[in-house]
## 1
Amino acid sequence: MQSNYFPRYDLASRIEHTKFDTGMSAGLPRSARLERVEVPETQNFKQVFTGLVENLNAEMEAPDNLLKDIMSGNKNVDVHDVMTAMSKSEIAINVATQLTGKVINAYDRISQISV
């Protein structure tokens, strides 16, 4: 094996150029370069809060439903499942309470802005 052997690669010819490269896109108008960027679909404020309230309702009903299953003799539900659901419900209520407080504070701040 040769100790001073350096492979010669023509790396410049291996690079694939696209229209997003700085050298290639210089001649393109700005609108042509931005058409490929996808805009994520976002929900409006009302849809986000409606989803949060529905999830909160489901989290609050879960411990009651599991407790009813245990009392009716369902062997697939364990007391630990009920306790876990109760903890999840408690956390969801705490988060919802804090979120509601933050939204009310933001609304108060916005309403104080003079136009």
Note: Residues 30 and 65 are 57 Å apart (CA to CA).
## 2
Amino acid sequence: MSGSLLLVDDDRFLLRAMEKLLVTEGFSCRIATSLRDAERETAGNRFDLVILDVGLPDGDGFTLCRRLRQSHTMPLLFLTARSDNADKVIGLELGADDYLTKPFEPRELIARVRALLRRAGEYNSGTPNINTPPRLHVGTLLIDTGLRDAFKINQPLHLTDKEFAVLYYLARYTEQAVTTEQIFRDVWGFDAESGPGAVAVTVYRLRRKIEINPDDPRLLVTVRGFGYRLTSDDGTLIL
């Protein structure tokens, strides 16, 4: 497996160590030591994955994550020395796909990178289920695996990588209840550090984009004590 990665951290020693490790594993890497450098890199280059630290000298990884999610859908992996769960929730709400707490084992970093790239590649190519068509219609939603985005009444929703993955996954089981654990296992993988709570955070973000009223969801509904169900009736009246 190969891919183009951007590594963002103000610890130059760690950056060089990660770069050496990842290049040895067949990945192409560029590095940035500040928010400004990272924004310059993402403006001029295409990356398959961004690995970023929460703490940066001229800002933080949360700011970078928020800005990237305005125009990019590649997976984001946060690195941090902090163990506060609040930081993890903030990162996930902003669009991060996984979290890795420092210090970490080199093989764990490689495993996370491969897992994120593999799942992103599967959903990009539409291969999780060979019987699933490249486009899915669910009510007023059109889910396009080629563009890796969804459209509501012909308007693009600009989904992040993980938002698209969860929506596409649920669309394959339209009108069926799917457990939270099943979504986490098949979209994140049990090796993800974020845990099943990441599913709830992603569903929350999705509802803000696909629902008429996110506080009263009609399309992506909660099955209490079980999981979620994607339905074809979101309450939209089409004349």
Note: Residues 125-132 have pLDDT under 50 and may be disordered.
## 3
Amino acid sequence: MTVFEYWPRTVAAARAWQERLRPLVELRPLPRPPRSLAGVDAAYEKDDRRLFGAAVVVSWPDLKVVETVGVSGPVPFPYIPGLLSWREAPILLAALQKLTQTPDVVLVDGQGIAHPRRLGLASHVGLLAGIPTIGCAKSRLCGAMGELGREKGSVCPLTMDGMRVGWVLRSRTGCRPLFVSPGHRISLEESLAIVQKCLGPYRLPLPLRAAHLAANQQRRGTAAPAGMRPAAGRTEMTIAG
């Protein structure tokens, strides 16, 4: 069975599949220090019928862009909180499959296990791709957090049902925080440490910001700026539909 043969068409089916897939998510330390990371993100056309996905690979730990790919395709599922993975996972998986190298860890603009059914976008992508993933979301979907300082680098735990499911991280002084949680095949501690080392002058970690810009540039039909142009060139593909 291919990944998309079971892609749900209803909210009830989507939630049921999340419950089925949830036990397959693994939280464990990386087998070795990463040598490359990728950021993946998606952008939408104004009519919300088509989306554009991008994957940007950077070397680790110097965070230099080495490859960028872009893909486009139809939106397969409506926007419903808690079910984002059924909407964006296909385009992000297509982008990852187009890369000429497999990154050691992927940062995803979405939740990992910090999700009502412990299967956010990052966990879903990691599970289907078989790659360690980290969720780095811009808003909190669930869980309780403690008091967080306003300074860049401030951290507090994110808990749910008495268990730690992630971290709340102030990535830029005075900015709204990020919600970091392991997606698949990585530990809680490693997820936070990697994201912390990816912080720059922006709210988003650098690999995710590069993917965000690349997806939006593709949506607008513009080329990547010189500072982001990958050494290996840029590849685009279209998903039929």
Note: The first strand starts at residue 36 and ends at 44.
## 4
Amino acid sequence: MKYFNSASFRFYHSLNDFLPENKRRVPFEIKFFGNPSVKDTIESLNVPHTEIDLIIANGTPVDFKYKLKDRDYISVYPEFKKIILHDKLHLLKKTEGKLKFICDVQLGKLAKYLRLLGFDTLYSNNFKAEEIIKQSKEEERIILTRSILLLKNNEVRFGYWIRSENPIEQLIQILIQLDLISELNPFKRCSLCNGELVKVDKELIEDELLSGTKKYFDEFYLCNKCKKIYWQGSHYKRINGFFQEIRKSL
């Protein structure tokens, strides 16, 4: 008596990052009982739906609700920047307007770097998964996370798995993968709280400045949220040098 059906799967490009070595870049067989959805089957392989843009079943595009059948051949693709698909074929959800992010508790440095580059990025070392998902849905923020499990949550619409543990590599990965190079707008946001920086008259903040800062600098910016004061001192020059190096590596 036959208890299980089988289907062949093949994952492409960056989706192989989620798979064990023996399943990368090659077709492999999956056994299944009944007719599970292709989404559930793919996520059982540890590949989150938030990074899948196209699924082909036996040569025909299908959506996540497609029910697997015996002897299906399934090809699964991430988003390809240089291949134009008909809108109806895309499975990835798109946010409206400028990209906004929310980082999980493991990505504090990445959040700081993104803010320094001008990207609206929420972060707290007290964020719980349900809070991240809620704010992502309400504000159409892309979840950046080291947790694949978080991205497999059915409530998550926008998300990306950060592969590296190194904050600089994480930043480079995001800038390239999400095509953000032309969107860089450094020193427009507070690295501490994500507030926007606005130019402020020196006379209005003189009492809060150290004597050396007051003597040698005349241009100042104020965070509209936490009221931290910024100016183009040695810290600014170090950060600017750092991001120039990042640009060279892209």
Note: The first strand starts at residue 5 and ends at 11.
